[in-house]
Predict the 3D structure of the following.
Amino acid sequence: MAEKSRILVIGGAGYLGKYIAEASAKAGHRTFVLIRQSTLSNPAKSSVVESLKNHGVSLIQGDIHDHESLVKATKEVDVVISAVGGSQFADQVKIIAAIKETGNVKRFIPSDFGFDMDHAHPVEPVASVFGVKTEIRRAIKAEGIPYTFVNCNAFAEAILRTFAQENAAAPPRDRVVIFGDGNAKAIFVKEEDIAVYTIKAAVDPRTLNKVLYMNPPANILSFNEIVALWEKKIGKTLEKTYVPEDQLLKIIEESPFPKNLMLSIAHCVFVKGEMTNFELDASFEVEASELYPEVKYTTVDEILDRHV
Amino acid sequence: MAEKSRILVIGGAGYLGKYIAEASAKAGHRTFVLIRQSTLSNPAKSSVVESLKNHGVSLIQGDIHDHESLVKATKEVDVVISAVGGSQFADQVKIIAAIKETGNVKRFIPSDFGFDMDHAHPVEPVASVFGVKTEIRRAIKAEGIPYTFVNCNAFAEAILRTFAQENAAAPPRDRVVIFGDGNAKAIFVKEEDIAVYTIKAAVDPRTLNKVLYMNPPANILSFNEIVALWEKKIGKTLEKTYVPEDQLLKIIEESPFPKNLMLSIAHCVFVKGEMTNFELDASFEVEASELYPEVKYTTVDEILDRHV
């Protein structure tokens, strides 16, 4: 477990990828990020690029669509982690092709990092958009590439910053919109913790060809529980508007893309409880907080404390 | 122009597609909608399905991924209009293949219905997501399929219902968030008018192998102008929060998918003014309100009146 590896992060300047690249470097792995020229010259990315460099990450100029650059980067490493965003899920067939060609990669983690589609029953358009992840998983297995598939559940900071209230800049102080009855349990994992667990799993023989879930027990909470926790902290009762499931489904139907995508994700997570309504199959599904009890993950409670 | 045609709408039970299918039927065209079994049995879709039937639209059970059903439906018609949502833009290669195979289609309108990517300079992830539209346009041209490409600009009802303030159910009465300085001009077209223009263009020789823009003069407005119009109507001044471009770009970078997609679209439309910062090239670009002055389009002013 203490073995040091060579890890390539694709999408390593993105929302989650930057945490993964930095967690990799912090763990002592030789870390590479495939980065586009356009990212390097993008002022909005300069602080991310700077931070990667400060962490000792090696930036390799290239692109998922530039096969040669992808093969060159892949040849350098034992582990490839893709953290590409939702618009590039399908493009990961190009990473699979590069890994097949070089033949040296001992572990590939594709970009999943959400809830498990195999256990979910999503409506459109999330069914199509996230369904691509399932196709990528199938292609990886079909090619015989060693893998770990990662379901990290909800990005805790992204959601708790606004309680999924769009156009808000902070958690609600007056009123809150709750989808469904608010009782479905979801799972929240802080982005940096997702990165730490992912890097641990990337070099762990126990996660080889397994599906990794991040279900830290203290962070399995319903929306109502989170709101109650928050109300206690701010000493105030929020005005709650519940949007029943049938109404939400109607709004999804009546909203153009990509608003319907946002809402159909919320439907899966907060109304259907798709993160928590199944049991893990120990033969091929493993859980991060059990595998890595040494990780002191950040709790929802601690995250909310910082917002009070 | 009075000639009646046979029109197939794919995605015809979707957000925009239902208006297109109904506009086609109202215009007297024999109208077909390719519809999935799952859509037919979806309670959230029942009112849409009912409405299509009431308009005399013929529902053909099938799917874009079921080649046989697609070929069968395509064989029946002169015009194919795709109104598939953003998660299926790339899948339109399957429609192209079916049209090639049958050889009888005189006009194909792929699913664009936004702003023109060829004139825009979008940031990610909208660059990738909507960039697929450009690839589909290229593939249609390469295959020699007769086409009209439609840039309808912003869905007026969808945007004006909440002034693009997410998690709102109505236009703002107290405060409003404005991206950029609010001065970039955007173009708003009511969904039903988009459908009427599209159906007119679908059988119009003047739009053959052309790009159609919908730029109704009364609906070319900046966000500030819309807010001012609204303030006058409700007799109240809103508290305005401006999000400068560099801050918005930073928020996009720091938001996970698909929130970053929503925001990158807003950046294009409301900050960069990508709908209005170019001139049409008369050799291959035509404008709907000029071609069809007989259409009494709904103005932004009229839409806002209904919300007062």
